[in-house]
Amino acid sequence: MRALSIIALLLSLLSGCALNPVTGNADFVMMSESQELSLGRQADEQVKKQYQVYPSKALQDYVNGVGQKLAKKSHRPELQYHFLVLDSTEINAFALPGGYVYITRGIMAYLNSEAELAAVLGHEIGHVTSRHGVRQQSAAQATNIGLTIASIFVPQVNTMGGQNLSNLIGGALLSGYGRDHELEADRLGADYLARSEYNPQAIIKVIGVLKNQELQDAELAKQEGREPRRYHGLFASHPDNDTRLQQAVGEADKQTVNHPVEGHDEYLQATEGMVFNDNSDQGVLRNNAFYQATLGIGLQFPVDWQVHNLPKSLVAISPKGEAKLQMKLDEKPEGTPEEYAKRSADSNTVESLEINGLKAAIATRANKILAVIYLNDQAYLLQAEAKSEAELKPYQEVVLATIHSFHRLSGAEAKLAKPLELHMVRAQEGDTYRKLALSSPLGKSAENYLRLINAQYPAGEPKAGELIKIVE
Ligand SMILES: [Zn+2]
Questions:
Q1: Ligand 1 center to residue 131 CA distance, Å?
Q2: Which member of 166, 323, 425, 446 lies 3.0 to 4.6 Å from 386 by CB, making a disulfide possible if both were Cys?
Q3: Fold agreement (292-415, 420-471)
């Protein structure tokens, strides 16, 4: 029964070869344009369930305006394109078949001009015009692994149990289409930039900025034991040394106009006030103090530790990376914090106490310290860990101080729980990123962040009189 419906679906997708809009040649694509559009529409609904749309009409209009300008100059100008800014810290942009293009505010924080925004959108438009999503699916069908992909795209024939769009997003759309398709998207993006009076070299610049961000994030990810965040268009080598990329983009240079639009100030004005890093639902870090208004909690991590707000936990790493302190949330179980701590830490060394008026317990066991704190219907678990007891020992005091800083958020503090924002300022004579970092709420990473978002990583400095981005 199930097998039959999938075969029926696959047959319905078999509609012979279509013409490739970019090359004009017959393409090994088993899908008509109307099927492509309906596929895009359905997947777009899934994306909107998965992500929040960024709630600023002005910013949406700006991005849409730039995108539509490029789309009109593309190989498929008759398609109806949709450009959407997603309220996500992910560094990403992606496209669905049929003209749906998404860009996260996470990636937008690292761009520095309208031309760079156009470069990201142009690359994604390139995936749409050359039908990479569709071609990918056709190739997969041909080798009979299309079952999974088709069922993900069409949720009602979901045969894979837990499969859903996130698997799909984690797959082809977000991880990219392989080196050749990415290069093709870059080449087409560069072409659309030139036709829209932007400098095609903005593609190389963007890839350089994102590469630096990736290198920095890879370092942090290693410490945190998580997967690094990657933009799908990035490959191993740095764009400056990437001859195939240089070549792909270089073709478009021949048609470059004399005075291409850069739009540095315009872009900073358009993104003025944009949320940076976590939004209020995720909780906010200010100089390693964490505030979460919905849960009504606050605590202070050691100021020289690296703190990261991950989807399911907060993780703080000691300066040299030997110790880790993680906070997780659980439903409050039956019984006391002491019982919970005993059970979780498998330890009999448990101290029962009150932390700022809240029932709590702290368990210790060799290389671990576990605190359990009850507040409302939640149990908060703070666990510190190192490879050995000896490596944890030097941090015992700051770990306990962090645990003891946990408290119910006061009314006065609630305003600190509002998210960080990007703001533009005019650099003054003598400004350095180190100096600007001193008054930044970004804590230990402030100098790196400020350099990265202003495309001055690793060693550039602001020039007096120019507009730069800061975080407040
Ligand atoms: Zn791509």
A1: 12
A2: 323
A3: no
Strands 368-375 and 275-276: unpaired
Question: DSSP assignment of 334-402, as one string?
Answer: SS-HHHHHHHHHT-S-EEEEEETTEEEEEEEETTEEEEEEEETTEEEEEEEEESSHHHHGGGHHHHHHH
pLDDT value of position 55: 94
For residue 328, report the distance from its CA to the centre of ligand 1, in Å: 35
Domain parsing of the chain, residue ranges: 2-271, 292-415, 420-471
Centre of ligand 1 to C-alpha 276, Å, is: 24
Q: What is the CA(177)–ligand 1 centre distance, in A?
A: 7
What pTM does this model have? Answer: 0.76
Strands 306-309 and 26-27: unpaired
* Model confidence pLDDT, tens digit, residues 436-454: 999 998 887 899 999 999 9
Domain 292-415, CATH class in plain words: alpha beta
* Residue 128 CA, ligand 1 centroid: distance in Å: 10
pLDDT of residue 327: 93
Q: What is d(CA 430, CA 58) in angstroms, rounded to the nearest whole number?
A: 34
Ligand 1 centroid–CA 95 distance in Å is 8
CATH number of the domain at 420-471, out of 1.10.12, 3.30.160, 3.10.350, 3.40.50?
A: 3.10.350
